[in-house]
Design goal:
The protein is an alpha/beta fold. The protein has 2 domains: 167 residues, NAD(P)-binding Rossmann-like Domain (Rossmann fold, 3-Layer(aba) Sandwich); 177 residues, Dihydrodipicolinate Reductase, domain 2 (2-Layer Sandwich). A 6-stranded parallel beta sheet has the order 3-2-1-4-5-6, with helices on both faces. Strands 10-7-11-14-13-12 form a 6-stranded mixed beta sheet. β8 and β9 form a beta hairpin. The model has no long low-confidence stretch (mean pLDDT 97). Bound molecules: NADP nicotinamide-adenine-dinucleotide phosphate.
Length: 361
């Protein structure tokens, strides 16, 4: 397989550190540039993350001595150095939109972890197992941007990864309605317990903007490409409540669902067990072998035990049973900074390379 030179924009942050870590042993991707704010620019990566390295493994050797570039001032330089960039920055939405377009217009594809472009109608928001066909909209986006190589592709919000993958193969039964309550880890807010001691022995029933994303983003994923735009699906209607819980990593969802044509419990489990997406067909390096794992034990999935399943890229499911008001209820779990953030973006980049949307220069 070809090798690709990769830049990480926002490489000093929580998600950026995860990207840097995931590049360490990646068979196709070689970490070539790291950029962040002017506060970090000019320092070595080791200096820039001193005192805030939040990963369980040490800083990769290949990253330590890279001099951090300025994400805004060095766009052209970075675009020349790499084949594409990952982007995960904490800036205002309109600033992120403009920054990502600058990279794309400099002919540098952007695989983004940010939400800024999720609702731009010619920007694909892709979970490789669910909607790989949305990548075809990239040609229309390139036409709008006036680019040959450059484009922006985004991954969806971390919360939806704990329930949308389980609902996806059941869409054929006609999902009438779904209700989800998410129990979201503190790393989703870029925090650890050391940096957010108020979360120990606590629960906060509010995550700004999260409920709207949890209800709406699955509809874009389930939408269709029409005339160079992604038109979102009209249903199924999802209602969501999102809570912050004292868990370091791993978002859990309690899901209730009703169908137009109700399948049996056995049918649902069989569909989950046999479900394979494009990522599995192409055998992408970060793809879990078994995307949806069902646990029969009544006390699973558990965040601490199951979030790292298949490198944190699999979705864990359990407790499927009939409900008194909906047809069924079940529980889902996904690793929010792996499948839900950097890992999901790496898998998307692998799909873009395998399908020829990103070429090495
Ligand atoms: N944490 C998660 O699980 C998660 C999940 C999904 C999506 N996201 C999204 O991913 C993005 C990053 O989140 P995070 O948790 O990694 O944030 P973070 O830890 O606060 O890191 C922010 C990064 O952005 C850089 N940055 C800040 N201001 C900048 C500027 N003016 N110009 C260039 N770079 C700048 C920072 O550089 P310095 O170090 O130099 O300040 C740092 O590298 C956000 O959009 C967030 O909503 C996060």
């Amino acid at each position: 397989m070809k090798q690709y030179k990769v830049g990480v924009i926002g490489g000093t942050g929580m998600v950026g550190q995860r990207f840097v870590t995931l590049m360490e042993h990646h068979p196709w991707f070689q970490l070539t540039a790291i950029a962040a704010s002017p506060r970090s620019a000019g320092k070595t990566y080791e200096e820039a993350v001193a005192g805030r390295w939040a990963m369980k493994t040490p800083i990769p050797e290949e990253a330590k001595s890279l001099v951090v570039l300025d994400a805004e001032a060095d766009v052209e330089k970075i675009a020349d150095m790499v084949d594409f960039v990952f982007c995960a920055v904490d800036m205002k939405k309109e600033e992120i939109r403009a920054l990502e377009e600058r990279y794309a217009k400099a002919e540098c594809p952007v695989v983004s972890n940010n939400s800024a472009h999720r609702w731009t109608d010619d920007v694909p928001m892709v979970v490789p197992e669910l909607n790989p066909e949305h990548l075809e909209v990239i040609s229309a986006q390139r036409q709008r941007l006036g680019t040959k190589r450059g484009f922006i592709a985004v991954k969806s919000n971390c919360s939806i990864q704990s329930y949308a993958p389980a609902l996806h193969p059941l869409l054929k039964f006609g999902i009438e309605k779904a209700l989800v309550c998410t129990y979201q880890a503190i790393s989703g807010a870029g925090k650890t317990f050391e940096r957010w001691p108020e979360m120990v022995d606590n629960l906060i029933p509010y995550i700004g903007g999260e409920e709207e994303k949890s209800e709406q983003e699955p509809l874009k994923v389930w939408g269709k490409v029409e005339n160079g735009k992604i038109v979102k699906a009209e249903g199924p209607a999802i209602t969501a409540q999102c809570l912050r819980v004292p868990v370091s990593d791993g978002h859990t969802a309690a899901v209730f669902v009703s169908f137009v044509n109700k399948p049996s419990e056995a049918e649902i489990k069989e569909i989950w067990a046999s479900f394979r997406g494009r990522a599995q067909e192409l055998d992408l390096p970060s793809a879990p072998k078994q995307f949806l794992h069902y646990f029969e034990e009544p006390d699973r999935p558990q965040a601490k035990l199951d979030r790292d399943l298949e490198g944190g890229m699999a979705i864990s499911l359990g407790r499927l049973r009939p409900d008194t008001q909906y047809d069924y209820k079940f529980v889902g779990l996904s690793h929010n900074t792996l499948r839900g953030a950097a890992g999901g973006a790496v898998l998307l980049a692998e799909l873009l390379c395998a399908e020829g949307y990103i070429e090495s220069k």
